[in-house]
Amino acid sequence: MMRKATLFACAVLVLCLLGCRSLTPTPVSRERYPHTPVPPTPTDVAVIPTGMLASEFRPGPQIAFQADRDGNWEIYVMNLDGSDPINLTRHPADDEYPAWSPDGTRIVFGSDRHGNGEIYVMYADGSQVTRLTENQDDDMMPAWSPDGGRIAFATRRHGGMTLYVMNADGSAQTRLTEQSTVGGGSTWSPDGTQIAFSVLEEHYISRIYVVNADGSGLMPLTPYGTYRVSGPAWSPDGSRIAFASEKGHHMKTDLYVMNADGSGETRLTEGYDLVLGPTWSPDGTRIAFAASDEDGNYDIYRVDADGANAVRLTDHPADDRAPHWSPVADLSSDLE
C-alpha cells in the first residue's frame, strides 16, 4: 500500500515536473509481515558504544536516504562520502522519506507496515520503532521542526494531499492547509515559524508556497508560469530555499536555489534527467540531492551551495532517493 501511495505521490510529482486524532504512540507489530530476517553482517549494522543507551546514541556525520536495494524501500544511512551504507529498517514493508531529529538521535519516516502509509520514528541505530499516526488514509513525507517539538507531514485524509502538523509524540494532529494538491514534502524555516511546500495547480503547473506554522499567512513564493517546481529545502541560515525546477528545460529538472522571499532564482546543476529532494548540510555550504540519468536510475549526489564541485555519492543499480543530511555533520573531516 505504501508503494502505491509512493507511486501516487511520485505520479503527482512527475506530473508536476513533466507537464502533463491526538494519539498515544504505539509500538510496532511486525505480525503483518511474517518473514525470516536476513542477518546483518558486522559491517552492515549501526554500532552503539558500550554502556550507551539507544536513546543517547548520536551518530557522527551521515546522510539518511531511502533505497530499494533489497526489493522494497528501506531507510539507510551512509557517510558523507557515500561509504558504509547501513540498512536501518530491515522490514519487508516500504519505509520512506527519512528525516533526522534536530538533536541527531532519531529519524522519522513513513511506512506501510500496518497496511497503509503512516508516520513512524526510530532511534538513529534503527531500534525502538514507534508508530505516531493511525489513520485509514495515507500519511507520508514527515519533516521535523527545528526545535524538535513538532513534525509536519503530508496526508490524503481529505481526498487529495494536504499538510498537517503534530507534536513529536504523535499528539495534537492539526490540519494546516485547505489545499488538496500538496505535491511533495515540506521544509521548516530555521526559526520554526514557517513551512514551505509545493502545490500542484491547474494545468499541472506547480508552485512553492509558504505558510505560518499555525496555518495562517499562506502565500506563494514562486510565480505562476509554465514550468514545474518541487521539493523545497530551507537553508540553515534561513536566507535561501533549494528546490527542483523544470525552468529552462523541457521535461527535465535541475537543482535551483532562491532567496527566502522567492527572488533571485539561480540554477546550480545541469545535465541530469530529473532532480529530486534537496537537503542542506548543517553549515549551509553544500546540498545533497537525488538525481536520475537517462536510464531512469536514481542516485545521491552532492554539490557546493554555489553549484561547484558536484560529486556522486552512490552508484547502485537500485534507486537511492530522499536524502536527508545529519544535523551533526563535520565537513572538515568527512568531505576531504
Account of the protein in words:
The protein is mainly beta and about 325 residues long. The chain has one domain: Neuraminidase. It has 2 helices and 25 strands. It has helices spanning about 1-20, 330-335; strands at about 25, 65, 75-80, 85, 95-100, 105-110, 120-125, 130, 140-145, 150-160, 160-165, 175, 180-190, 195-200, 205-210, 220, 230-235, 240-245, 255-260, 265, 275-280, 285-290, 300-305, 310, 320-325. Strands 1-8-7-6-5 form a 5-stranded antiparallel β-sheet, with no helix packed on it. It has a 4-stranded antiparallel β-sheet with strand order 4-3-2-25, with no helix packed on it. It is globular, with a radius of gyration of 18 Å.
At a glance:
The protein is mostly beta strands. Helix content is 6%, strand content 39%. The strands form six sheets. The chain has a five-stranded antiparallel sheet, with no helix packed on it.
Distance between the termini: 41 Å
* Total DSSP helices: 2
What string gives the helices and strands in order? HEEEEEEEEEEEEEEEEEEEEEEEEEH
CATH topology, by name, is: Neuraminidase
Structural class given helices, strands, pairing?
Answer: mainly beta
The profile of the biggest β sheet is: 5 strands, antiparallel
The CATH fourth-level homologous superfamily: TolB, C-terminal domain
Q: pLDDT average, as an integer?
A: 82
